[in-house]
């Protein structure tokens, strides 16, 4: 299982990477494998400011729909438009081309409360 060490993780299987002061958010390889073939991603919170743990969208697989949760508080500034036509990018490249949203981080200290790769691996039994 691929768990990049430079990312931070939530217990709900979202990841966040900080680049140039912005958070880039997606779901983990573990989550996409559990969901199966992803067929649709919906984010209706563009330009909204959400708190840590709030739902920012949904992800639909062949058999289920799951909520997506904010790993930290912030304003959603971008949605990965490539997912509109090719949501399976999340299955193919969950930590790269399969990113879901970008966020202006409200409080960077919240990153300290997230799991590192070792703690996330322990959570999923890795």
Brief summary:
This protein is α+β, with helices and mostly antiparallel strands and 126 residues long. The protein is built from 4 helices and 9 strands.
Spatially, the strands of the biggest sheet line up as: 1-2-3-9-8-5
Helix/strand order, N-terminal first? EEEHEEEEEHHEH
Q: Any idea what the CATH superfamily is called?
A: RNA polymerase II/Efflux pump adaptor protein, barrel-sandwich hybrid domain
Ranges with pLDDT <50 over ≥5 residues? none
Structure commentary:
This protein is an alpha+beta fold and 126 residues long. The chain has a single domain (8-120), classed as RNA polymerase II/Efflux pump adaptor protein, barrel-sandwich hybrid domain (OB fold (Dihydrolipoamide Acetyltransferase, E2P), Beta Barrel), CATH 2.40.50. It has four helices and nine strands; from the N terminus they run βββαβββββααβα. The protein has a six-stranded antiparallel sheet. The longest helix has 7 residues, at 29-35. The radius of gyration is 13 Å and the shape is globular. It starts with 7 loop residues before the first strand and ends with a helix. The mean pLDDT is 96.
């Amino acid at each position: 299982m691929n768990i990049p060490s430079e990312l931070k993780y939530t217990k709900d299987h979202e990841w966040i990477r900080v680049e140039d002061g912005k958070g880039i958010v997606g779901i983990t390889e573990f989550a996409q494998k559990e969901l199966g073939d992803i067929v649709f991603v919906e984010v209706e919170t563009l330009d909204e400011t959400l708190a840590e743990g709030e739902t920012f969208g949904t992800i639909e697989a062949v058999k289920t729909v799951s909520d997506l949760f904010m790993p930290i508080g912030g304003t959603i500034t971008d949605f990965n438009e490539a997912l509109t036509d090719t949501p399976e990018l999340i299955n193919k490249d969950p930590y790269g081309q399969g990113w879901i949203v970008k966020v202006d981080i409200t409080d960077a200290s919240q990153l300290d409360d997230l799991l590192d790769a070792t703690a996330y691996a322990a959570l999923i039994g890795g």
